Amino acid sequence: MNTRDLPAPPPSTPALPLSLSDLVVERVGFGIFVLDRDMNVLMWNRFMQDHSGVAAADVIGRPVFERFADLPRAWLTRKVESVFQLGSFAFSSWEQRPYLFRFDHDRPITGGVDYMQQDCTFMPLMREREVIAVCVTVSDVTHVSVMQREREDAVARLREYADRDGLTGIANRRFFEGRLADEFARWQRYGGEMSMLLFDLDHFKKINDEFGHVAGDTVLRAMAQRVAQVVRKQDVFGRFGGEEFALLLPCTPLDDALHVAEKIRRTIGDAPVEVQGVVVPVTASVGAAAARPGAPDYEVMINEADAALYRAKHQGRNRCVALVHELS
C-alpha cells in the first residue's frame, strides 16, 4: 500500500498547562492544606486563606499550630500520625467534632452554631509506597448540620406533642400507660414497691352545666397545674380522659401512696378556681392501688385503682380510698 493512502494521524492533544491543577486546587469550594510529619504546612489553598484570614505565604513552611493555637493539638496530631502509619484515609464528621478551624459561617445567627461546621478528610500522599505527607480537606457542612438539627428538634417537638394532652399539657393516656407498662415490667423482674392513683373531679358535669365548658376546661387546666407542682420528679402524671387523672408512683408502697393521695386531694380542694370572675368550688375523689404478686399485667393495677375510685365516690366523694388485698 502506498503511504499516501494511509489516513493522516490525528492531531496531537495539546499539553495541559502545569498550572491548571494548581488553579483547580485554588478554586474548589472546600479547604485543602497539606502537612508533613512534623505538622508543618506544605500547601494552603484559597479557601483556607479566605476563611482563616492567613495568607499561604504566612503559614507554609511553619507548624500549623504556630498560627492556629486554638486547634485541637493532641487530636489533630494523632489523626495525622495515624495516616502516616497506616497509609489509609481517615475521616471526621461534624457530628463527632463540630469543627477543626474556628471559621465564621454565613448562616443566620438563629442557626444555633457559633462556627462553620466541618467535615474533614485526611488523605495519605504516597511516593513509592511511602506516605510523604497528609492532605486534609475541610468541607463546609454548616447548612447540612443546621437543617439536621432543625429536623431533629421538629421531630422531638412532634414526639412531645404526641405524648401530651392538648388541654392540660400533662402526659396523655397513651404515654401514661406506656410508662406504667415499663415500670410494671421492671417491678416484675426486680421486685420492690409500686403504686398508682386514679382521681377525678367530683360533680364535674355539674360544673360544665352550670358554668359552661370553657369554665370546665379552665378548671381542668388549673387542677393539672396544681397537682403537677406537688408530685415528685420521678412520678408520671397524666390525664386519663375527661375529668379523670392518673399518677404513677414508682418505688412507693400503698401506705405512702395514700399519703400522696391525701396531699393531692387537699391541693385540689383547698381553694376554689376563679373563672371570669366566677368562683368554682372543686373537690376530688382518689383511688389507690399497688402492684401485687400474681397480677398478670399492669392493667390489673388500673382496674383496681378504678375500683377504689368507685368506692370513694360511693362513700360520699372528696376522699381517698385504697384497694387492699388480704394475704391468704
Highlighted features:
alpha+beta; Alpha-Beta Plaits; disordered N terminus; 5-stranded mixed sheet; Beta-Lactamase; 328 residues; 12 strands
Question: Can you give a write-up of this model?
Answer:
This protein has 328 residues and is an alpha+beta fold. It folds into two domains: 16-147, Beta-Lactamase, CATH 3.30.450.20; 164-322, Reverse transcriptase/Diguanylate cyclase domain (Alpha-Beta Plaits). The chain is built from ten helices and twelve strands. The strands form three sheets. A five-stranded antiparallel β-sheet has the order 2-1-5-4-3. Helix 7 crosses helix 8 (213-228). The radius of gyration is 35 Å and the shape is elongated. It starts with 18 loop residues before the first helix and ends in a 6-residue tail after the last strand. The model is unreliable at 1-16 (pLDDT under 50).
Number of E strands: 12
Compute the number of structural domains.
2
Principal-axes geometry comes out as: elongated
* CATH homologous superfamily caption of the largest domain: Reverse transcriptase/Diguanylate cyclase domain
CATH fold-level topology of the largest domain: Alpha-Beta Plaits
Q: Strand order within the widest sheet? A: 2-1-5-4-3
CATH top level assignment of the largest domain:
Alpha Beta
State the CATH architecture of the largest domain: 2-Layer Sandwich
Amino- and carboxy-terminal Cα gap? 117 Å
How would you spell out the order of helices and strands?
HEEHHHEEEHHEHHEEHEEEHE
Mean pLDDT: 88
Beta-strand content bin: 15-25%
Instruction: Indicate the percent of residues in helices.
Output: 25-40%
Poorly predicted runs of 5 or more residues: 1-16
Number of helices: 10
Domain PAS: 24-87
InterPro entries: Diguanylate_Cyclase, GGDEF_dom, Nucleotide_cyclase, PAS, PAS-like_dom_sf, PAS_4, Rev_trsase/Diguanyl_cyclase
Domain GGDEF: 192-326
Enzyme class: transferase
